[in-house]
């Protein structure tokens, strides 16, 4: 189970680290030109950068605390944060009628919820 949690957390960290970094450095005008980036039309450049910063912080929080052995409780908290960010994304896409993006967001919600559940409820050691 621990290996599955590490794999899922690592994949989420890669996806959200890269996606968040792009939101921070790529201008709003370029994000809007991407087929899956139309949501950015409804947001200010500062809000897009803030969302990106939250995603980068969550990505770091998914792996660094456990890998370094410092405050590992931050891992499930980061995962819960991603669930909340993706819930917001689902609402935005639903308002815009972007059903295909909602499906992708739901996958991220399930994966992040799995990490949160697994790290909040560690399995007892095998004797």
Total of DSSP H or I helical runs spanning 4+ residues: 5
Order of secondary-structure elements: HHHHH
Distance between the termini: 16 Å
Please outline the major beta sheet.
Answer: none
Unreliable segments of 5+ consecutive residues: none
Helix content: over 70%
Overall radius of gyration: 15 Å
Number of strand elements? 0
β-sheet strand percentage: under 5%
Give me a quick take on this structure.
The chain is mainly α.
Describe, in plain words, how this protein is organized in 3D.
It is a multi-pass membrane protein. Keywords: Membrane, Transmembrane, Transmembrane helix. With 127 residues, the chain is mainly alpha-helical. The protein has one domain. The chain contains five helices and no strands. Helix 1 packs antiparallel against helix 3 and helix 1 packs across helix 5. The radius of gyration is 15 Å and the shape is globular.
What's the arrangement of secondary structure elements?
Elements lengths: L1 H24 L2 H6 L11 H24 L5 H23 L2 H22 L7
Helix pairs in contact: 1-3, 1-5, 3-4, 4-5
Keywords: Membrane, Transmembrane, Transmembrane helix
Protein name: DoxX family protein
Organism: Streptomonospora wellingtoniae
List its traits.
globular; 127 residues; mainly alpha
